[in-house]
Write a structure and sequence with these properties.
An 8-stranded antiparallel beta sheet has the order 4-3-2-1-5-6-7-8. By secondary structure, the chain is α+β, with helices and mostly antiparallel strands. The protein is globular. The protein is built from 14 helices and 8 strands. Among the domains are: about 1-55 and about 135-235 and about 325-380, no CATH class; about 385-445. Strand 7 and strand 8 (about 315-320) form a beta hairpin. The chain has helices spanning about 1-10, 10-40, 40-50, 65-75, 135-145, 150-175, 190-220, 225-230, 260-265, 325-330, 335-340, 345-370, 385-415, 420-440; strands spanning about 85, 95-100, 115, 125-130, 275-280, 285-290, 305-310, 315-320.
């Protein structure tokens, strides 16, 4: 028994575990990292690919939610049942109306209809199905490998395997206190393969903690019953809206409208921000209004919820996160911690870099293995060639930056946005880029 434990704890066992995980599911780790990094900025990327989703000159006030919903129903008159209106995060954003189970994608795991509506005019700008756009396809790849429920469970297992890979990699990196300085050396004169290996160790060291958090929270998101079991919470799964509540009032000819229901719901939370409103379905349906209090860590999917009866106009139930148990409070952290929302803008950027590092770790580790097995030959590094290439890449980058800035400046003029201070900064930056480009172009290679 003692020999078995010693064998399991030996460095050779840890090395084989790390290697076999990388060779078997390392490519999936890389895909998870890249798709997750891009999904962090999903909304921004979607607006970049679809400029019509940005309101160039937001003016006045939003239309009432009743008028917004009337526009949606006029565009989709044959879609009965509940709709959810998601409020924009900025004055330039669209209201998104969600229809959970359209007939076109009814048998898919998650593929709602997304209707983008201009909140100032009520114009339906675009109607799309989840999974049919670039950004939602990437998010499906990240969450379920585009394989529905089987993929969803597989991604959860991959998260657990990634955490094991991180722990074994960190153990293999540790050189001991006497050789700690050697662990940070870059042997750039020893050849390309050793440099790739040193980069692998360096990236692994600084990204392991972040990757562990991402892997474990991803695992818990895929298997929410584990969280419920350990925290003693229920109905806290991401996307869950709490208990199913129905109306007990008698239907009448004076139902409460959307705007009135929101007004009633904000009574207990006057300073809370409106995030979502779900319309009633059928005579027993009820309004579900989702709000966000300043104390909530969740930005996009907060837990403050008020149910308002359509027929009586009375509040039926309230879910207040400030009254959650410790277990429920812990459960609310899983999603924002995985997406980086809990850490703010800088945290999201660190999460973005962590996903990219996962891809780089896979590539550098694969190169090392191919070299060790004789399938790839080492090459000496010629930094004179790299220097010339670096100059050319630098010059090209300045040229690209110049073109992008000029296009953006043209866009500002066409949009009639007069931002004097911003234009002065852009002018200075353009001049500096031109100077740098001129210097590089005049240098002899």
């Amino acid at each position: 028994m003692q020999q078995l434990i010693q064998r399991l704890l030996s460095r050779e066992t840890w090395l084989k575990t790390h290697l076999y995980l990388a060779l078997s599911v390392g490519l999936f780790f890389a895909l998870m990292g890249l798709s997750g990094s891009l999904s962090i900025y999903r909304e921004t990327l979607d607006e970049l690919l679809n400029p019509q989703l940005i309101i160039e000159e937001p003016q006045g006030h939003y239309l009432s939610l009743d008028k917004i919903m009337a526009s949606v129903r006029a565009e989709h008159p044959n879609r009965y049942g509940a709709w959810t209106l998601e409020m924009p995060r900025s004055p330039e954003g669209m209201i998104t109306a969600w229809y959970d189970k359209p007939t076109e994608t009814f048998f898919e795991l998650y593929a709602p209809l997304m209707v983008s509506v201009n909140p100032y005019t009520g114009e339906v700008v675009m109607s799309r199905f989840w999974g049919s756009t670039t950004t939602t396809w990437l998010l499906d790849l990240h969450t379920q490998l585009n394989l529905d429920r089987f993929g969803w469970n597989s991604v959860g297992i991959l998260g657990l395997l990634l955490s094991i890979s991180c722990v074994t990699g960190l153990y293999l990196w540790w050189p001991g206190l006497h050789n700690i300085r050697l662990a940070f050396k870059f042997r750039y004169k020893a050849g390309m393969m050793l440099l790739a290996f040193d980069m692998h160790r360096f990236l692994g060291l600084f990204s392991t903690i972040f990757l562990l958090v991402l892997a474990l929270t991803g695992f818990l998101l895929s298997f929410p019953t584990i969280v419920e079991t350990f925290t003693g919470s229920s109905g806290m799964e991401h996307g869950q809206t709490g208990r199913s509540i129905t109306s007990t009032a008698i239907p009448n000819n004076h139902p409460t409208g959307l705007s009135a229901a929101v007004f009633v719901a904000q009574g207990p939370f006057p300073k809370a921000e409106l995030r979502r409103v779900t319309t009633p379905a059928g005579d027993t349906g009820i309004y579900r209004i989702n709000l966000r209090q300043n104390s909530e860590i969740n930005q996009r999917h907060p837990f403050t919820t008020v149910w308002v009866d359509r027929w009586s106009g009375q509040i039926k139930e309230v879910r207040n996160p400030s009254k959650f148990s410790k277990g429920e409070a812990i459960a609310t952290w899983i999603w924002p911690l995985h997406t980086g929302e809990a850490l703010g803008g800088k945290g999201r950027f660190i999460w973005f870099l962590s996903g990219i590092s996962l891809f780089l770790l896979y590539v550098s580790g694969l190169l090392r293995w191919l070299y060790r097995t004789g399938k790839l030959r080492d090459r000496p590094l010629n930094f004179t060639v790299f220097r010339a290439t670096a100059y050319r890449l630098k010059a090209l980058s300045y040229r690209v930056i110049l073109q992008l800035l000029m296009l953006f400046d043209l866009y500002l003029k066409n949009a009639k946005r007069h931002w004097p201070s911003l234009k002065i900064q852009f002018a200075k930056y353009l001049e500096w880029c031109n100077q740098q480009y001129a210097k590089i172009s005049s240098k002899k290679r």
